[in-house]
Write a structure and sequence with these properties.
The chain is α/β, with parallel strands linked by helices. It contains nine helices and eight strands. Bound molecules: zinc ion.
Amino acid sequence: MIRLLPAVFLSLTMHAVAAPKPAPATPAPEPTPAVASAPAAQPATALPADAAAPPPAGQPRSTYSQCHVDGPYVAMTFDDGPHGANTPRLLEMLRQRNIHATFFLVGQCVAEFPDIVKKIVADGHEIANHSWSHPQLSAMSESAVRDQLQRTHDAIIAACGVTPKIMRPPYGAFTARQRAWALGEWGYKCILWDVDPLDWKVRNAEHVKTEILKQAVPGSIILSHDIHKTTVDAMPETLDALLAKGFKFVTVSELVAMDKPVAPKPKATPAPKADAPASAKAEPAAPPAPKDKVKP
Ligand SMILES: [Zn+2]
């Protein structure tokens, strides 16, 4: 990830108005650009407040952090690659279990490892756009965001011939306007997540496995990063445990295709029961666990 640092740090410096930080000498575990209005309490990695809000009536939904499905389906997602060593290792683990996942690719890594991108597609996984150099898109101009997404879009097509249909903004940071625009421009749905093992932060395979198993529910979109050895190390036991619990793996687009609208809660109902229906947790008012911990 060292090669990503200049762009990441550029993004940092653009926002470090109130409390500029020194340049990290080694890959930063998590960029937390300071925000002028609330330098201590409001990390810029927080997701937009309306990131998973339902669309206006009659308009297609543009953003998903989880899906509402009838069966025990989940989508494993792997961000920030492809990685020269860890991604091929992961692909073998997935192949052995006949699991299809979704890879949110960083454009400059696509350009570096086009053969791995081909292998991802050949193995039946979904590929998706995760920007060119992993900046915080919500803070950038429209032309700069277009460049980030279009270059990656083109690089993916050049590498494997497949047109990505979905994207995930780095750090989950994408404004409502940008989401509507990306949907119109490229047909991109914006994919967030509801399960976050913080694998970028806690480089421990046991922790990654424990958190994923603890958080995953039917319809989950599980965030992880195949650039980290510890995350890939965690996968055999994690995947086997999820399979043992009855989960079935699909790609994000397959999960989205199964998504069912959640009926609005009746307002005239008398006192709600103590055991809330499943729909109570189906549509979070805000995106999951943004805080200062997100590193998609
Ligand atoms: Zn990322």
